Structure formats: C-alpha cells, structure tokens
Amino acid sequence: MYFALGLLVVLGVASWLTIDASAVFHVQRYTSKFLSYGRRDVEIRWLPVLFLSLFAFRVVIAHMRARLEAKDSQ
Q: CA geometry: angle at 54 spanning 22 and 50, to 5°?
C-alpha cells in the first residue's frame, strides 16, 4: 500500500510540474434545476491530481478491506 501511494504521489508531483499553469479549460455558463454557475477557467493541472487522488482513495479502501477480512478470518 505504501509503495502504491508513494508512486501516486510521485506521479502527481510530476504531472503538476510538467503541466503549464497557464493551460486552462474554459467552462461555459451552465444552469440546471440543481446547479448553476457562470463562466469559469479551470486549470488543467488539477485534472491529473484529481484522477490520481481517486486511485489513492481506492488503494486505501482496498487495504482497509483486506485488513478487515484478515481480522475476521482469525
């Protein structure tokens, strides 16, 4: 688990440093019954960090599940 999390951190830092801060994704105005926001610029460098953090969450959850299953089998 620690190796996988460390690798995800290294990939996150590498993606953060290699993607230019001025690269943005322009989001147009959106309105629905539940959500409404105006025009925004989203930095593209946040997208791989979000993606990798979802994998990190999965790794932690799988580790917790394995610990619980090992505890139940004893």
A: 10
45-70 pLDDT tens trace: 889 999 999 999 999 999 999 999 98
Q: Where are the domains of the chain?
A: 45-74
Distance CA(61)–CA(68), nearest Å, equals 11
Q: What is the residue type of 23?
A: A
pTM beyond 0.85: the answer is no
Residue from 52, 61, 70, 73 nearest 7 by CA = 52
Helices assigned H by DSSP within 1-74: 2-18, 46-73
The pLDDT of residue 23 is: 86
